[in-house]
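Example complex used in Figure S2.
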Amino acid sequence: DADVTQTPRNRITKTGKRIMLECSQTKGHDRMYWYRQDPGLGLRLIYYSFDVKDINKGEISDGYSVSRQAQAKFSLSLESAIPNQTALYFCATSDRYSEAFFGQGTRLTVV
Amino acid sequence: AQSVTQLGSHVSVSEGALVLLRCNYSSSVPPYLFWYVQYPNQGLQLLLKYTSAATLVKGINGFEAEFKKSETSFHLTKPSAHMSDAAEYFCAVFNFGNEKLTFGTGTRLTIIP
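Predicted assembly (224 residues):
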């Protein structure tokens, strides 16, 4: 089983719909992250959480919200999806001062 | 604030040739640096990392990178390219201030048969 699991892997949704992307990890790490990948822009941080009670905005948090349901679970929501949120989304987890471990990604298309 | 710049969004090399992917960083303190690889339709996988020990770091699949403080560089190399090396490669720097990873914009490596 993968260390970091994202669901769904692919999703097409309509403009204005609410959508949730889910992430769970079995690494036992406290830290979890949501990134967005766009061609030519690399990975940009949306939200991050250093423990269940600590959630922080990243560089592109507008239009997104998150929930840290447990140490192992971190979900990302788009309250009202818009086409420019079409992207590849990655969840990651890490220990302090160590490398991040990534999920397989969720390809989201907003039409 | 820490940042990384990857020179060349696309690099093509012939099979068997040297692979050189460039990464320059900006950091006010000695950094932790990482190279990740992303194969098509997959997540990012760690290739190697520098955490202030040896300046020449060896990673998986025959890749290595050398930390050069004087040049603020952490270039990724492989002596002989293989078709399976075709992927996108990301350099990243760990920001000790806010404890986050900052990624470069990536370099797509194409291997020519």
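Chain B has a mean pLDDT of 94. Chain B touches chain A at residues 9, 32, 34, 36, 41-46, 49, 51, 90, 94, 99-101, 103-106 (CB under 8 Å).
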